[in-house]
Amino acid sequence: MLDITMPGWGGIATAEKIKAACPAAKVLMLTVAEDEDKLLHRSRPGARAYVLKGVSAHELARVVRSVAEGEVYVTPSLAAGILVTLTRSPVPQDPLEGLTERESEILKWWCRA
User: Fold this and answer.
1) Side-chain-facing half-sphere of 2: CA atoms under 13 Å
2) Structure pTM?
3) Which CATH number characterizes residue 59's domain?
4) What do you get for the CA distance between the two ends of the chain, in Å?
5) Per-residue pLDDT at 87
6) Based on the structure, what is the number of domains in the chain?
7) Domain carrying residue 102
């Protein structure tokens, strides 16, 4: 169980080191942030659970047991945000693709000037 903002290397780097030394390790991260973008970025170290600080002792014990049994866990509010992020319409790779016909005309005119 690691705190994402723990002193020293921090939880992310520590999780990476743990997973490199022992790939079978099951890391549980504690966080105060409900930022799904950061969570998606932080999931790379291989944490099996993300729990908000302030969770009840009963709930934390349940999550620890479920992770030990091979399950994954994300706090419901974080999970909802992740689902919204993942189901959002993709942003066009070329920012010019999103321009209206009129905006394209103005841009072409501007480039000629």
Assistant:
1) 27
2) 0.61
3) 3.40.50.2300
4) 60
5) 76
6) 1
7) 2-112
